[in-house]
Design goal:
Blueprint lengths: L6 H14 L21 E5 L5 H6 L1 H11 L2 E6 L4 E6 L7 H15 L3 H4 L1 H4 L4 E6 H4 L5 H11 L4 H10 L2 E5 L2 E6 L1 H15 L4 H18 L1
Antiparallel strand pairs: 1-3, 2-3, 4-6, 5-6
Helix pairs in contact: 9-11, 10-11
């Protein structure tokens, strides 16, 4: 059964209903502290015993960028031995809280403040951690030799990998922490794993040169 209404009358009806609709409401953009219903957000970072003294010495270097630039409140809870962070009403972005927590955590892992502060300024930086036993189960002198191969004489091997891959590496006993971009962390991790598995440093250097040259061409 076909409709008897003409197309012209349907157009008039549509125009009439559009005119009858109320105007769209204009909402002001939410301020960052209003996004979580105005609730203050917290983060806590534990301080390991061996990082307590370095934290005391570098406290102002950590405090200034967090409080002044990122607009995040920071304090040291001496009883709980934790660094506590919380958002303020003038915090420009809620994501700043997590960035500051990552920055403080990176310092606790053993990175220098000047290296860790890059986490606040760049979005594409990460910290990756793994243990030597994740790569190969080593014990006794074999483990000591593997740690020695990773560092090299006077830290030469570690510095060479850092400079070639634009990363920062912390070797804390059997734990290894790498700070850098995703692609660079992968290259550094592959080099470190080769050293753990027993490759001589010279072979790792030559492979590293080839990989970094390929990366440079790509970017």
């Amino acid at each position: 059964m076909q409709s008897t209404e003409s197309p012209a009358s349907m157009e008039v009806e549509a125009a009439g209903t559009a005119a009858a609709l109320p105007p769209k409401p204009q909402f002001e953009p939410l301020k960052p502290h209003e996004m979580s219903d105005g609730r203050v957000q917290f983060r806590k970072v534990s301080v390991p015993p061996h990082r307590y003294s370095p934290l005391k010495k570098a406290w102002m270097e950590i405090y200034m960028p967090v409080y002044e630039q990122m607009k995040i409140d920071i304090r040291m809870n001496l009883k709980a031995r934790k660094v506590e962070l919380k958002t303020r009403s003038d915090t420009p972005d809620v994501g700043n809280l997590q960035k500051c927590a990552d920055f403080v955590h990176a310092f606790m892992l053993g990175f220098d403040v000047v290296d860790a502060v890059a986490l606040l300024r760049l979005d594409e930086l990460y910290v990756e951690s793994f243990e030597i036993k994740d790569v190969k189960t080593l014990r006794g002198e074999h483990l000591s030799r593997a740690i020695g191969r990773l560092s090299g004489k006077g830290g030469k091997t570690k510095f060479a990998i850092e400079n070639a891959t634009k990363t920062r590496i912390v070797i804390a006993d059997t734990k290894i922490h790498i700070l850098g971009s995703f692609a660079n962390i992968k290259v550094a991790r592959d080099s470190l794993c080769s050293l753990i598995l027993g490759s001589p440093a010279g072979k790792v250097y030559s492979k590293l040169r080839a990989v970094t040259a390929r990366l440079a061409e790509r970017f």
